[in-house]
Amino acid sequence: MPSRNASACCWPSPSRTTARFPRRLIAERRIRFVRVGRHVRIPESELQGFIDEGTVERLRLYPAGSG
After folding, report:
1. In this structure, which long-range contacts are made by residues 24-27, counting pairs with CB atoms below 8 Å and at least 24 apart in sequence?
2. Coil, strand or helix: which one is 47?
3. Is 53 helix (H, G, I), strand (E, B) or coil?
4. Residue 12: CB partners within 8 Å, gap ≥ 6?
5. Where are the alpha helices (DSSP H) in 1-61?
6. Quick one: which of 17, 46, 55, 59 could link to 21 by a disulfide (CB 3.0–4.6 Å)?
């Protein structure tokens, strides 16, 4: 099944970023994209990969089971 694509101007709203952010990622070639004529599309799998790559796991301050 082909993956869905998001346009650069319509970056998924939960990310709460401006339209400039995905355009900058594309301009800097930091994210994979597909050019369809004048339009640019970003595969959803690429968006998820970008988010996963930047995710920082929480730090455990105390060993498990210590209180």
Report:
1. 25/50
2. helix
3. helix
4. 6, 47
5. 20-27, 44-54
6. 17
End-to-end Cα spacing for the chain: 47
Residues in contact with 33: Cβ distance below 8 Å, sequence separation at least 6, in sequence order? 8, 26, 40, 41, 42, 43, 46
Higher pLDDT, 25 or 11: 25
Q: Please tell me the distance from the alpha carbon of residue 4 to that of residue 24, in angstroms, as a whole number.
A: 21
Residue with tokens 């004048």: 38
| Model confidence pLDDT, tens digit, residues 15-41 | 677 888 888 999 999 999 999 999 999
**Rounded to two decimals, what is the model's pTM?**
0.64
